[in-house]
Design brief:
The protein has 508 residues and is an alpha+beta fold. It has helices at residues 2-48, 51-62, 95-102, 145-195, 210-260, 266-290, 302-312, 314-319, 338-356, 405-418, 475-485; strands at 67-73, 79-82, 108-114, 119-130, 133-143, 298-300, 323-328, 334-336, 361-369, 427-428, 440-447, 489-495, 499-507. The longest helix has 51 residues, at 145-195. The protein is rod-shaped.
Length: 508
């Protein structure tokens, strides 16, 4: 604030100084012109010694506006002609007159207060040259009253302009400060509510700057906390449920085996046994979801797991005549549980195949991301997701804000590669943040199926939620848990009628 006011003051002072100088230079130029006219006109009168002509010249110039005194002096300082007749024949020996008398052919100009006129004047002395020699000095004094009034009027205008400028700046600063402090106060209140245990608070992202980044981070955090609390409570419930299911299933399976051995009821027993096995698999998945397990880490190349998933699902891929597009760049080996990650990729590819139907296109991309790409995408959550921020329907990413270039660049390239824009909005779930100092490997699986409605996006990773007729709703929830246990992130982006992309990032 002080700096802005100081800058305004400096600019106004500079304008004032330039205008003042311009006004004074104009008065000085007028005085020089009149002195020059008097000098040229007085040559003949001086040469002839015609004092009457000299007096007429002096009086004619005195009649001009603001001219206070005009005179002709000989080289001894004696007054030859003066607009005040009483001054004739007087000898001036003051320093300014002597300076004018001894100047070598150049005008002498001086600003001073004249005690007789009782005002400030500009005093100009110009040599009168006769036959190439200095014969006299023509002297003109012009009042500075008019110039000073003009300067004072200009100063008042500049002060008014300065005052208006300061008021405008103060108003703008107040508005800007309010626009900054209000979101911060709101953000502080929301953070305090969270610290007091309110997990259902709804956080809206209202800015696209650093405050928006803070709002987004807090929103992502509370969504993650809500998801974890739901999963924790659900895990305890599903563990008990799985145990309760498996106990009667064991008995039913025993009798189904006995029933299937009898020729009359063999078909009925086989169907019963099939359904029992399906329920048993469901119970196993429930236990996997609810139990904490130790990862069996080993050296793993994610490209191999992607290829293995395609191999395992080769039958459905060929039956539906699905075209595979690979962009699997070389990846470093990471320490991971191969079996668990294999189940994740197989599940995601299966979902993509089922979403596309006949003659779809499946895009697979793998690449190594530098540390600066490990930002996080904006979370939309809470009753329907907002469009991915800063991407326009041209397919080009918007100009990045400081600190957000990495993830925007990455998602912009991914979107241009995988999505064909049709004016539809693209929606996504949250992507938790990886440590910014770590590199990450990225696997993206994209189909061109029907896409996912935006109102369902925030429920994609919840247990028992499914859009399939025969699904149990545990596949994506287990995949989310497995990726999370590996310290990675999983996100889904989708456009209705265009397709869906699942993106997995795991730290190296």
């Amino acid at each position: 604030m002080v700096l802005v006011i100081s800058l305004i003051s400096a600019v106004l002072y500079l304008v004032y100084s330039q205008q003042e100088q311009s006004i004074l230079e104009e008065v000085e130029a007028r005085a020089n012109d009149l002195a020059t006219v008097l000098a040229f006109a007085g040559v003949r009168a001086r040469l002839e010694g015609n004092y009457l002509d000299m007096q007429e010249l002096v009086d004619s110039i005195k009649n001009r506006n603001d001219v206070r005194q005009t005179m002709l002096l000989d080289l001894d300082g004696k007054v030859l002609a003066h607009n005040y007749v009483a001054e004739r024949d007087k000898v001036y020996d003051d320093p300014l007159t002597l300076k004018m008398l001894h100047a070598d052919g150049l005008p002498v100009t001086d600003y001073h207060y004249h005690p007789f006129e009782k005002e400030n004047v500009v005093d100009v002395g110009t040599p009168v040259i006769v036959s190439g020699k200095k014969a006299a000095v023509a002297r003109v004094m012009i009042s500075l009253n008019t110039a000073e009034r003009a300067i004072q009027s200009m100063a008042k205008q500049i002060l008014v302009l300065g005052g208006v400028s300061v008021v405008v700046v103060l108003a703008l600063v107040a508005l800007f400060s309010r626009s900054v402090t209000q979101p911060l106060r709101k953000l502080y209140g929301e953070a305090r509510q969270i610290s007091l245990g309110n997990r259902e608070i709804q956080i809206a992202v209202t800015a696209q700057d650093e405050i928006g980044t803070l709002q987004q981070a807090l929103k992502t955090m509370i969504e993650e906390v809500r998801l974890q609390s739901r999963l924790s409570a659900l895990g305890a419930t599903t563990a008990n449920l799985a145990h309760e299911i498996r106990t009667p299933l064991t008995v039913i399976a025993r009798y189904a085996n006995e029933l299937s051995s009898q020729s009359v009821a063999s078909e009925l027993g086989a169907k019963l046994l099939c359904e029992v096995n399906r329920l048993n698999d469901l119970a196993k998945q429930l236990l996997q979801f609810s139990q904490k397990r130790k990862l069996m880490r080993s050296r793993t190349n994610l490209n191999d797991l992607v290829e293995q998933a395609l191999f395992l699902l080769g039958g459905p891929i060929q039956e539906r005549r699905i075209r595979i597009h690979r962009d699997l760049q070389p990846l470093p080996v990471i320490a991971a549980d191969k079996n668990l990650l294999q189940s994740v990729f197989t599940n995601l590819v299966t979902n993509a195949i089922e979403a596309m139907g006949e003659e779809g296109e499946l895009h697979l991309q793998a690449k190594l991301l530098p540390a600066q790409f490990n930002g996080h995408a904006a979370s939309a959550g809470n009753g329907g997701l907002a469009p991915v921020p800063d991407f326009q329907n041209t397919g080009e990413p918007a100009a990045p804000r400081p600190g957000a270039r990495g993830w925007r660049k990455f998602f912009g390239r991914l979107r241009r590669r995988f999505f064909v824009e049709s004016g539809a909005q693209m929606y996504h779930t949250h992507l938790a943040k990886l440590p910014p100092e770590k590199q990450a490997v990225m696997i993206a699986i994209r189909d061109n199926g029907c896409g996912i409605p935006k109102e369902l996006m925030d429920r994609m990773f919840l247990p028992f939620f499914t859009t399939k007729k025969n699904g149990n709703g545990l596949g994506l929830a287990l995949s989310h848990k497995i990726i999370q246990e590996h310290g990675g992130t999983i996100t889904v982006e989708s456009q209705e009628g265009q397709g869906t992309t699942f993106i997995i990032m795991l730290p190296v």
